[in-house]
Amino acid sequence: MPSNDVTGHQDKNLRDSIPGKYRDLKVEIITRVESVDITSLVMEFSIYESLDTPFLHGELKFADNSGLTTALPIIGQEKVRIKFTRRNETVDKTFACTNVIAIEKLLGETAGVVLTLTSEKHLTNAVSLFSKSYTGLASNIINQIHSNYLKEEIEIKSPSGSAHNVVFPFLKPYAAINMVMKKTFGDDGTPYFLFENLFGKKPILQSMESMLKEVTVDKLPVLTKAMSTNNDDLGQGSRHRPETMGRLLSYEISKNSDTLRLLSGGALINNTMRLNLSNGEFTENPFNYATHAATLSDLDPHAFMEIDDIKLDSNELKASNSIELYFPLAFESEGVTELGSQVDALSSTKAASRMERLNDMLRIQAYADSDPKNYQVGKCVNLVMAPNLPGLESDEKLKDELFSGQYIISRLRHYIKDDNYNMSMELVREGLSKPKSTGSHPAERGPR
Question: Is the predicted pLDDT of residue 327 greater than 80, yes or no?
Fold first, then answer.
């Protein structure tokens, strides 16, 4: 229970449960001969997560006023241990320092030293080569490579939708994993990702649809700006209220549908020529996203284009062309799996279409208070944005019905500077929310 101390000391469990705060930070630089605690010297650090990166990386800046950089010395071959707690969630990870990218004078004899950090397994990957054959589900192959050569198991939240017979000739582990990732997709047919969370225990393999369905929308954490609930001119009465934890501080819509790119890239309509390398035969497979890989969002933003057979036959719309090189012996064979995914000639095209639409539809840069339990790459948030309208008394709970809704966190930066801990996030989805069509909708009031 909270402390009854009235001497002015703040209970440590209370400290990390108010917006922007954390506790029990400890940072150590570990060399071959000693470990040095530099917690009091740390100025700031950033740790990055990404859907398309299977490891963590970041930067650490500390103040050197005692010749530490020269005495140890720090040359980019050390380990850095970082430990801290936020909202009773504790992270304790050791990173490899791979470079000293800057040493700049700050004040007097003090210098600011910036270190490049990455997961230790990234360093292991750099000095590893293997040559071996694998057979089975793509997700199992990836897990075997990762556990055998990078010494870490993967959490498979959703299995892959393809199986392979593959030989890797003297490749690095991540190079081999990337080869498989480019050829596979989730068992639901959607794009497949291998990623890692700072506050997670293992790397994760998961499909896009699995991320969207892991938690129902009504139970997702709500990411929105907090409204002031007091009349204090400085706003101090509401700034540290518990309900403002994890609040949205600012956002920017950096991309909103690159239709030209989607059309020219074949993400909407495409003729896929599938060439069988074993016998030289080929098949032509027409693809229409609305039929074969419909949007998973409430509103299809491309439906107005009316892509139909009449327009295609009359050349009013012309589909893009692509070639898929297919080698049956390198994919699933009888006895390996009962998936039969390679029977679907459009399986790879469907996944590629969804990936293009995810990357080129809607992308939002959000800056928010830290909430490591709810805000992680691969998880979803319910973003509530205010409409571009002047505020009215009756519109206190008004939201932008088109852009608000469920988003996947695709990239995340943990940023600690001084006593503050915030997060920068990239939010993506491949569709829009469907506005409510009511006569009282604000859009029908006309411009102001």
Answer: no
